[in-house]
User: Fold this.
Amino acid sequence: MSFSGKPPVKVKEAIVQDNVKEAEPSNSPDHIAIIMDGNGRWAQQQEKPRAFGHKAGVDALKKTIEYCAKHHVKFLTVFAFSSENWLRPAKEVDILMSLFMLALKQQSSKLHKNNIRLKVIGDCARFNSKLQAKIKDAEHLTAGNTGLTLVVAANYGGQWDIQQATQQLIEQAVKLKLPASELDLADFLSTRGIPDPDLFIRTGGEQRISNFLLWQLAYTELYFTETLWPSFGEAEMDEALKAYSSRQRRFGKVSEQITGENP
Ligand code: IPE
Ligand code: IPE
Ligand code: MG
Assistant:
């Protein structure tokens, strides 16, 4: 599987989408996607500045990565900074950028030692050149790892992703002299090669997608918790996985087709 360079061009073979996982009883998710929300409120509850919450958020992420690696989750995608988060006060944006840089500096070799592959999705061109270089270095260092894939969505927006994918798809179709309908949009999304999330978790109590993986969440099981991200630990993750295991994923079919019972 390759994450870099031009997307592989795959001509569609069937109308039925092949990016939807074959219906099977829910058990443990291969791919968990998380909106890590509530850092600011967590800090404010303790009468501390929001930056304190963002630092604690990085610690919660470290523990979540360890949990996923330990439980053989194959892909963990986390929303670290949305395309709309630039609208926050400049001071907070600066703090978030510094924390991202620091986390990359401090954690890249640890990720590598633990056989974890890092992939950053989003429009990285808006980051300063040092941060862009650090992202590339960390991705390059860990590219051959075969354990957990950690996908960090940074300056990411689901609408941006669909728009850039559409642009690339049209360019390829023109180049190959094919009708655009012969190509698969999923092959041009920033998540190409990564299966769609099985489980989506949003901490912090809001029940919205906030422009996260709009295309990829089509058949993902959604889980919302009031717990603020810095307080999200092993017990909360166990709870989310328990909820997931009780869901029946039908992908448009009827229940009996999934259980094998006669209707
Ligand atoms: C999530 O926590 C972190 C980022 C968006 C970067 P928030 O900063 O949104 O925290 P709340 O939602 O204000 O509590
Ligand atoms: C979503 O959280 C983005 C990240 C966690 C990075 P926000 O706090 O930005 O979302 P809204 O503004 O409440 O929808
Ligand atoms: Mg928030």
About this structure: The longest strand covers residues 75-82. The beta strands are 31-35, 75-82, 117-121, 149-156, 199-202, 221-224. The first helix runs from residue 39 to 45.
